[in-house]
């Protein structure tokens, strides 16, 4: 074996990434909340990437592309003998120990045919649960040393929830993880570094001291959470309340009175306004079961922000409710208790006097302790930062400090934990060595995050699943009219400790079992460094020291991490901050340096706030990428994982990469989004993460300026190639459109700087914005897709083009406004308002909806120009002609439609027939028990079968589906 490095160093990710396998395994990893990777149970973080996708990118960004030289260098390694074996080896290292593509197809067939397969259908565990053995890791390290001259280090400068550093460290790679946010840095420390460094040997101390801590919390809180008849409380269910403005009586602001809707096991609450003939000042509540429910529980008090008083049936305005809340006169009232009986049966009951007395005692206790707690700075009385995009969740309803996010008893519960934690810390430090004590305390403190997430005024009762719903089931501080409180003495922190120790043990086992040397039982050595700071200032890293900068940066304006993290930060700085003070030096999280497009920071600039927020995001990401450029080896690679459907996000990210000195070598779309994600459901969201593969740009030839027109044909060709390539990988809809963005940006990055032929405002030559290239890519894709929809080269006009492409791209009646705007621009330069005037779409809040034919009747000044017109002799827009025929068939029957076709000659009109065929191919053809999921599909089907024999009808899908926003994308890939 020779000693020189493998050359040329072209990396595997520049030639191949198993996008279908990684996509299927990513969705499998996140398919069930109870089977998520243990990092997810340690602490909340938003937008974690799947471990399997992260592992694939980390590995492919370090391994060399296969070559005969590589096989010759390792003659005893059959894994490297040929391309196919090499690719299977990568999948094995990622934990994919089977054929997920074939398995997924078999599962889909079995579902259609109603067959239950043995096991999970894959024949192997989720990828992250599989452990490559020591031989596999040793071979990996040998190949990497021969490629890089060392086991190459990996850095993630915006590490967030820790997926990338976790998989890198697990594979035994020197790992550097950084995040600006102190909460994220703590999660990285607890979930990656401590679990890797201390392993299972920390677990006994963690359980011992955790049990002591929880027991002390329990003893202090027992008087405020009485239990009766050996029941266990699952949740206390509360409503916010205000006084009726006319009667002064308490009005619980409940949207409906259901507690359980399961057929045969229904439970609801009856509001009791009178007792023994006396009108009650404050209502009482009865929990009613089954047939005893003789009222409509769906009819609550609240609807769309306003209420109807149950006392006089008059409206209580939303403005009044907000004013009462801001004046401190919004109260909370307990109206039900979810319990578990001794035999394990779940039930629900009304509050009893013992419950109400305990609440009053808790309120008194809080008031007694408040002065001391405030002086000791145990209460999070910090004002909620004025820089906020989530004001509707708190300030509108009088919540201005972080303590006000909690009811009195919830506040008491959490501060007791913080106080007991501070008390036990000195005992732990006295008994254990410094390093072990710090590790135990950091892990114990981190469990408070779970308690906060399930015990606040924004946690709630999930009627359908009969369980608590966390604060962050969505990424905001949405105000909840009703909320759920955990039982604080016996249940909450005992459960949080279990969640902590279970997650810790599983994380430690993943580390210990990966690369385990079985005979001596020796774990793989690992080196992990966690820092908290700006990703644009990695001063602890030397120039050109990193082989792979692998990052999952903030996604433009998707999540305001710092704003959300303050919810935890203000508590954890009082616990974790005593253990890791370097992560909690400031009063609140750092929003000034956070790289997100945050319009709230520029609210004072009015209409310019979004433009300034975009510029700020671009500047900060440029600085982060410039620092990545500094620490990256000249032969290293930067991989950027990015998920966003809005072109502005790609424009700003792309410009930041280009200006920081990178070229985009290639890109890979991997469908990573959970099919059950609340952030995907009912949204026309991108389901794919695009993996951008970047290199340092060499010195450009500055003798000649390059203009976009010089390379436009290359951009169009790159878009065409990407369309074909990634469609074969199973992508469709928005994801297929996004898959062309990377190749388009790759072309312009190779010629950068590229200039626009349109001058700047002062007349000077300006740099091209990436969005201009992306727009060209979209136009090219639209043109190709239109031809595919019809079945041959077809030319319509923009309104028909838009309608056909909208159905084909989104596979839904309703989709995002921004997507509609982009698609409209790519079909003849239309805008959404023009589509509204033509009655093609209806605008809604943040979305648009395709109108049905019966909603497009031409009237007034638009008669004869746009829309459905049964009296017309001819049509300027083929979509109007097809919709008119469909309308007549729907209203008057097929015979009347045939008369219309004959009278107008449309049956033989090429444009009409092409449009009709395009709609047949584009509109989802699905039937359910109630008929066609999309009525238009049924109209088209009937007309084609009766009078248009040349129209080819696609086969109906065997599986019944309800086509709503998001379904199409969740099944892509």
Low-confidence stretches: 1-8, 675-685, 958-973
How many β strands by DSSP? 27
**Mean residue pLDDT:** 90
Bin the helical content: 40-55%
How would you sum up the major sheet? 7 strands, mixed
Strand content: 5-15%
First and last CA, distance: 42 Å
Find the structural class using helix and strand composition. alpha+beta
Count of alpha/pi helices: 32
Spatial strand order of the main sheet: 16-2-1-17-18-20-19
- Rg, nearest Å: 31 Å
Shape type: globular
Describe the structure in your own words.
This protein has 973 residues and is an alpha+beta fold. Helices cover 42% and strands 14% of the residues. The protein has 32 helices and 27 strands. A seven-stranded mixed sheet has the order 16-2-1-17-18-20-19, with helices on both faces. Strands 3, 4, 11, 12 and 15 form a five-stranded antiparallel sheet that branches. Strand 26 and strand 27 form a beta hairpin. The protein is globular, with a radius of gyration of 31 Å.
């Amino acid at each position: 074996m020779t000693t020189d490095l493998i050359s040329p160093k072209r990396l595997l990710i520049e030639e191949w990434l198993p996008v279908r396998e990684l996509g299927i395994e990513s969705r499998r990893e996140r398919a069930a909340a109870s089977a998520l990777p243990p990092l997810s149970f340690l602490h909340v973080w938003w937008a974690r990437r799947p471990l399997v996708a992260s592992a694939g990118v980390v590995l492919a960004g370090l391994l060399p592309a296969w070559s005969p030289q590589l096989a010759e260098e390792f003659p005893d390694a059959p894994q490297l003998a040929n391309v196919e074996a090499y690719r299977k080896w990568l999948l094995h290292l990622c934990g994919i120990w089977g054929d997920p593509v074939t398995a997924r197809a078999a599962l889909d067939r079995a579902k259609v045919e109603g067959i239950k397969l043995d096991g999970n259908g894959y024949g192997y565990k989720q990828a992250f649960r599989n452990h490559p053995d020591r031989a596999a890791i040793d071979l990996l390290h040998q190949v990497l040393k021969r490629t890089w001259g060392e086991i190459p280090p990996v850095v993630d400068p915006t590490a967030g929830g820790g997926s990338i550093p976790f998989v890198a460290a697990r594979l035994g790679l020197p790992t550097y993880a950084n995040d600006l946010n102190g909460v994220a840095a703590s999660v990285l420390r607890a979930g990656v570094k401590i679990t890797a460094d201390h392993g299972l040997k920390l677990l006994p101390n963690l359980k011992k001291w955790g049990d002591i801590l929880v027991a002390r919390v329990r003893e202090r809180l027992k008087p405020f959470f009485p239990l009766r008849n050996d029941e266990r409380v699952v949740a206390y269910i509360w409503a916010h309340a205000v006084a009726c403005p006319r009667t002064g009586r308490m009005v619980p602001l409940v949207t409906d009175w259901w507690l359980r809707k399961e057929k045969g096991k229904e439970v609801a609450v009856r509001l009791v306004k009178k007792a023994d003939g006396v009108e009650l000042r404050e209502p009482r509540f009865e929990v009613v079961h089954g047939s005893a429910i003789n009222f409509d529980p769906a009819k609550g008090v609240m609807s769309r922000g306003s209420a109807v008083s149950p006392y006089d049936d008059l409206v209580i305005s939303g403005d009044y409710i907000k004013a009462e809340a801001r004046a401190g006169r919004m109260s909370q009232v307990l109206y039900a208790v979810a319990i578990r009986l001794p035999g394990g049966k779940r039930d629900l009951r009304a509050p009893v006097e013992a419950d109400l007395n305990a609440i009053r005692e808790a309120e008194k206790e809080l008031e007694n302790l408040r002065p001391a707690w405030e002086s000791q700075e145990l209460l999070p009385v910090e004002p909620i930062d004025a820089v906020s995009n989530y004001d509707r969740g708190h300030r509108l309803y009088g919540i201005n400090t972080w303590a006000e996010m909690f009811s009195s008893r919830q506040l008491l519960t959490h501060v007791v934990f913080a106080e007991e934690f501070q008390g036990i810390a000195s005992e732990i430090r006295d008994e254990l060595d410094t390093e072990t004590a710090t590790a135990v305390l950091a892990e114990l403190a981190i469990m408070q995050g779970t308690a906060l997430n399930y015990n606040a005024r924004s946690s709630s009762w999930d009627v359908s699943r009969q369980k608590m719903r966390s604060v962050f089931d969505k990424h905001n501080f949405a105000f909840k009219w009703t909320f759920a409180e955990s039982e604080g003495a016996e249940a909450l922190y005992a459960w949080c400790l279990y969640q902590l120790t279970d997650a810790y043990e599983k994380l430690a086992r993943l580390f210990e079992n990966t690369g385990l040397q079985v005979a001596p039982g020796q774990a793989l050595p690992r080196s992990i460094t966690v820092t908290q700071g700006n990703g644009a200032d990695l001063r602890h890293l030397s120039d050109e020291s990193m082989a792979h900068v692998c990052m999952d940066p903030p996604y433009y304006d998707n999540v305001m991490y710092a704003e959300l993290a303050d919810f935890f930060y203000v508590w954890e700085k009082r616990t974790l901050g005593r253990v890791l003070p370097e992560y909690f030096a400031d009063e609140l999280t750092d929003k000034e340096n956070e790289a997100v497009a945050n319009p709230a920071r520029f609210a004072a600039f009015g209409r310019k706030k979004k433009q300034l927020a975009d510029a700020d995001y671009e500047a900060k990401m440029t600085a982060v990428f410039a620092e990545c450029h500094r620490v990256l080896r000249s032969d290293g690679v930067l991989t950027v994982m990015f998920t966003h459907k809005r072109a502005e996000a790609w424009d700003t990210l792309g410009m930041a990469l280009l200006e920081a000195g990178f070229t985009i070598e290639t890109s890979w779309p991997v469908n990573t989004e959970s099919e059950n994600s609340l952030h995907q459901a009912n949204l026309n969201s991108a389901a794919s993460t695009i993996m951008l593969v970047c290199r340092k740009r060499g010195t450009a030839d500055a003798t000649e300026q390059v203009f976009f027109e010089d390379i436009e044909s290359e951009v169009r060709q790159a878009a065409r190639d990407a369309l074909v390539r990634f469609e074969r990988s199973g992508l469709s809809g928005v994801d297929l459109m996004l898959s062309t963005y990377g190749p388009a940006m790759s072309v312009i990055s190779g010629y950068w700087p590229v200039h626009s032929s349109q001058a700047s405002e002062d007349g000077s030559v300006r740099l091209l914005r990436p969005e201009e290239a992306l727009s060209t890519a979209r136009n090219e894709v639209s043109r190709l897709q239109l031809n595919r929809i019809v079945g041959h080269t077809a030319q319509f006009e923009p309104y028909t083009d838009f309608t056909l492409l909208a159905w084909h791209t989104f596979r839904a009646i309703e989709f995002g406004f921004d997507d509609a705007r982009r698609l409209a621009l790519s079909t003849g330069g239309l805008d959404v308002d023009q589509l509204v005037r033509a009655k093609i779409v209806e605008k809604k809040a943040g979305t648009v909806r395709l109108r049905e034919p019966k909603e497009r009747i031409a009237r007034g000044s638009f008669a004869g120009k746009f829309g459905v017109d049964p009296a017309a002799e001819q049509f300027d827009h083929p979509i109007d002609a097809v919709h008119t025929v469909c309308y007549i068939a729907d209203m008057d029957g097929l015979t009347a439609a045939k008369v219309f076709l004959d009278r107008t000659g449309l049956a033989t009109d090429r444009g009409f027939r092409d449009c009709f065929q395009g709609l047949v191919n584009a509109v989802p053809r699905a039937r359910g028990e109630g008929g066609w999921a999309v009525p238009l599909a049924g109209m088209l089907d009937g007309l084609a079968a009766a009078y248009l024999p040349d129209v080819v009808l696609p086969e109906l899908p065997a599986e019944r589906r309800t086509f709503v926003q998001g379904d199409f994308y969740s099944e892509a890939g």
